[in-house]
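Section 4.2 – Deliverable D4.2 (structural model, holo form)

The reporting period included a commitment to supply a predicted holo structure for the target in complex with zinc ion. Inputs used:
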Amino acid sequence: MVIDCKHVWDRISDFLDDTLSPDARDLVLRHLEHCEICSAILDSKRNIIILTADARVFELPMGYGERLHARLEEEISVLRREPC
Ligand SMILES: [Zn+2]
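Output (structure tokens):
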């Protein structure tokens, strides 16, 4: 069975979420092997997901910012004490 681009676009979110059935996943993978358009779409979708995930990483636990800041101050003061 061969699926066209439209079918891939319908499934791309599920594909990235890894919620497709093995058969459907296989069909999408096989389509992606020969279709540059869908590969490009998949890449850009994936980048968006990575960016969103990164934004979540910045929601650090309470106090982490302060601790990190203190640590950086410490490192900087150590560096300053050492002769260049
Ligand atoms: Zn395609």
